[in-house]
Amino acid sequence: MPEFKKIKLVLQDGTVFEGKSFGYDKSVAGEVVFNTAMTGYPENLTDPAHEGQILVCTYPMMGNYGVPGNEKEDGILKFHESDKIHVAGLVALDYSADYSHWNAKQSLSQWLTENKVPAIFDVDTRAITKIITEKGTMKAKIEVDNSTIDFANTENENLVAKVSTTTKTTYGKGKYNIAVVDCGVQNSVLRSLLKLDATITVLPWDYDFNNDNFDGVIVAGGPGNPAVCKPTITNIQKAIEAGTPLYAIGIGHLMLGLAAGASVFKLKYGHSGSSISVKKEGTNSCIITSQSHINALDIKTLAQDWEPSYTNLDDNTNEGIRHSSKPIFSTQFYPKEVKEHDTASILREFIELVEKHKK
């Protein structure tokens, strides 16, 4: 058993948790959130929606199946949601230095260290989660070597611009010419689109896609406050006026709501996990979704041309909207291609709308 250096997590309310380091030795600050997923830490840590956050894992053990390599398919990473780790730091109850998995290439500790991301274990993650659920998401910091740093304030920072691509890149040679506005898009969305016979062009967050000849547009991501992304919201407004087929995901859903004149509010502690129950409006159908967001759309402020399409069954917040006559809709959750709950069918629904619009 290797020896682990002492490290501490400090919450904004003054609570201090002392533990052991299994990542890179540096002090960081960010917003502390918790994730309830039992597996998928490589995907969660590379999800751009977690940019700058200190992520607390409620599942007790991390690291037992290691970290996959950087294999690519069609130019896109197969086992990661982006090309880098986006969390500022990681918090776990227990860390397994020994790992075993068919596609593991290195340990979680090695991966975090190489990417200069600090991590702490041997702390009471249930107590941390309880504090967050009672007091709300708050600022926090991980401190090493008795160093002291200030808490970070990212509330009005444009985190979307920080994680978005800066170049225009095309993947695939499919039938449908789809623009993907990268507001922190997950690689799993891109992989699913390629399977649906799409040619996808990934664009920077502020690119005006209305000037190009796309069959449809996806706005997907991502981290932070959607209200600071004014160029994207303006471009979505143009698409609404033109009736362009558009599907907005994650923070894109919130941007669509803002473009439609609705308002957004911050949740007490957000939704982050892979088994969050959502009801499809007008049905008795419930789907299990993957999510990572801290803001929600105020459904009461929606204009008459719009209607809610999905609702969170835990707190009754909105999870999706749809235009009453135009091929435009959104989901707060991610469309995932998983055996147990294939919400990637929503991407197929979008492609069907694109097909109808082309005729």
Describe the model.
This protein has 8 helices and 23 strands. A 7-stranded mixed β-barrel has the order 1-2-12-9-4-3-13. 20% of the residues lie in helices and 35% in strands. With 359 residues, the protein is α/β, with parallel strands linked by helices. The chain is globular and about 65 Å long. It has helices spanning 41-45, 108-114, 125-135, 159-163, 187-195, 230-242, 251-259, 345-358; strands at residues 6-11, 16-21, 28-35, 53-57, 61-62, 67-68, 72-73, 76-77, 89-91, 94-95, 104-106, 119-121, 138-144, 169-171, 176-183, 198-203, 216-221, 246-250, 263-280, 286-298, 306-312, 318-323, 328-331. The longest helix has 14 residues, at 345-358. The chain starts with 5 loop residues before the first strand and ends with a helix. The model has no long low-confidence stretch (mean pLDDT 94).
How would you write the strand order of the largest sheet? 1-2-12-9-4-3-13
Overall number of strands: 23
Percent strand equals 35-45%
Percentage of residues in helical conformation: 10-25%
Major sheet characteristics: 7 strands, mixed, barrel
Contiguous helical run count:
8
Q: Termini, distance in Å?
A: 64 Å
Low-confidence stretches: none
Structural class: alpha/beta
Gross morphology is globular
Overall pLDDT: 94
Kindly provide the radius of gyration, computed on alpha-carbon positions and rounded to a whole number of angstroms.
20 Å
Q: Quick summary of this structure?
A:
By secondary structure, the chain is of the alpha/beta class. Helix content is 20%, strand content 35%.
